[in-house]
Amino acid sequence: MHQQKRQPELVEGNLPVFVFPTELLFYADDQSTHKQVLTLYNPYEFALKFKVLCTTPNKYVVADAAGAVKPQCCVDIVIRHRDVRSCHYGVIDKFRLQVSEQSQRKALGRKEVVATLLPSAKEQQKEEEEKRIKEHLTESLFFEQSFQPGKNRTVSSGPSLLTVFLGVVCIAALMLPTLGDVESLVPLYLHLSVNQKLVAAYILGKCFKGALGH
């Protein structure tokens, strides 16, 4: 007699949650950044319901803070900053996305996304450029010291170049527009399907897990 295949028991809190991006930056001098979009991916074969929580809900408006995601699909969650004041500059707020099966109430997984309000995009770009220059100088000094003749140094192992490359490619794929996005200025051949983005999100999660395992 043919037995019905049972779905494995899902442990509370252990289900990986795929959200992009994982950091939201709002700029006071750029009104176009006051609205941000979080994309929640569901690469699983069962539907998920989700809920968005925030440490400072009075500062944000979250459209569709609760809902459902069909199997192997994704949903966009729009977040608007409604309290753009100088007293909030640099303050780190947190959003938590909780997911569960539609037939259950327990949270199978959760993911935190940080949000920060900054005064100016130009100032932030300048700081990032200065940071990159400092990092470049530090790396140059490190390699000069590491490969001096007659000195043996042990270099700690980190993520492989392949892992880093795959991570960068997956991030770039997630940033590309989705098929059907008619308002995008990106050429049509660079538009990706939802399934392709789900694969990229899954690989990106594996890359991060592998990097943390070193």
UniProtKB/TrEMBL annotation:
InterPro entries: Ig-like_fold, MOSPD1/3, MSP_dom, PapD-like_sf. It comes from the Eukaryota. The keyword Glycoprotein does not apply. Gene3D superfamilies: Immunoglobulins. The chain crosses the membrane at residues 161-180. It is a multi-pass membrane protein. Keywords: Endoplasmic reticulum, Golgi apparatus, Membrane, Transmembrane, Transmembrane helix. The keyword Transmembrane applies. Residues 16-143 form the MSP domain. Pfam families: Motile_Sperm. It is found in: Endoplasmic reticulum membrane; Golgi apparatus membrane. GO terms for cellular component: endoplasmic reticulum membrane; Golgi membrane. Plays a role in differentiation and/or proliferation of mesenchymal stem cells. Proposed to be involved in epithelial-to-mesenchymal transition (EMT). However, another study suggests that it is not required for EMT or stem cell self-renewal and acts during later stages of differentiation. This is Motile sperm domain-containing protein 1.
